[in-house]
């Protein structure tokens, strides 16, 4: 088929369905995300495959996996959809009659401390914007970013194979700490013996996350014997509830509990070893440029991160750590 003929037959709905199936790995979840039926998604993807003359997905019991041709087509489909959204955003801002829409991803352990001041600063420049926040584990955010479902993510630097096609700009670093409720029996102890953790529920980040690795390193350095029971959770609200209501010891990044620590709801345990500082950064696709509204939000994120680093340096009496930028290919 001639390229000009194929170009004229590819519609926006084709690209939307293709990107949704690629992102979610199956027709059912893609249909739910687009608020249409599964047969409609399947039919639209089949139409696109017929137009392009290639097979975009391998379908099986475990869902749909993009073929080599699908992988080649994905960044261009994503760029096309993003370019159209950028144009709509510009018109929305110029006319003032409709709201622009921006979709970003952020770690749940970072969102509570970072997003409120970022959006407060951002709203001064773009007052009529719908901001859709997707929270999830770092691998999930990276996959959503590669599929074009979000414009950028605020997350952690992953293994090199996961960062292919993505760039990482460090914003700040934060330690992993252990917290308990105010008045907890361990809160008043000094020189806590490692075995004392066995007397209380322990809440850890999920296995496979970077902060779980930090937690395991901290526990090992502390000399804590293998735990016979613990809870794995990434949700900040659930971790907070377990700590306040169940006397749990919660291993969590500092930024996730800044509000509770400042108001005396939670207190840090005096651990014999400090948790490793983990970098938090801005993650973007290397093959696309942010929309105007996206650039404005990125600038707000950078400014709030700079303020956080300056405040941390003032407290410690030192200089803020230099920011790192990494581009993976």
Question: Would you write up a description of this structure?
Answer:
- It contains 11 helices and 13 strands.
- The chain has 329 residues and is of the alpha/beta class.
- The chain folds into 3 domains: 3-74, Arc Repressor Mutant, subunit A (Orthogonal Bundle); 99-172 and 278-327, D-Maltodextrin-Binding Protein, domain 2 (3-Layer(aba) Sandwich); 176-268, D-Maltodextrin-Binding Protein, domain 2.
- The strands form 3 sheets. Strands 4-3-5-12-6-13 form a 6-stranded mixed beta sheet, with helices on both faces.
- Strand 3, helix 6 and strand 4 form a beta-alpha-beta unit.
- It starts with a helix and ends with a strand.
- It holds the Pfam family LysR_substrate.
- InterPro entries: GbpR_PBP2, HTH-type_LysR_regulators, LysR_HTH_N, LysR_subst-bd, TF_PcaQ, WH-like_DNA-bd_sf, WH_DNA-bd_sf.
- This is Pca operon transcription factor PcaQ.
Radius of gyration: 23 Å
Named CATH architecture of the largest domain: 3-Layer(aba) Sandwich
Biggest sheet details: 6 strands, mixed
How much of the polypeptide forms β-strand, as a percent range?
A: 15-25%
The span between the termini is 32 Å
Alpha-beta content class: alpha/beta
Question: Helices and strands in order, then pairings?
Answer:
Blueprint lengths: L2 H7 L2 H13 L2 H8 L3 H15 L4 E4 L2 E4 L1 H28 L4 E7 L1 H16 L5 E7 L2 H9 L6 E3 L10 E9 L1 E6 L20 E3 L5 H13 L8 E2 L3 H10 L3 E5 L4 H5 L3 E3 L9 E8 L6 H25 L8 E3 L2
Parallel strand pairs: 3-4, 3-5, 8-9, 8-10
Antiparallel strand pairs: 1-2, 5-12, 6-12, 6-13, 7-10, 7-11
Helix pairs in contact: 2-3, 2-4, 2-5, 3-4, 6-11
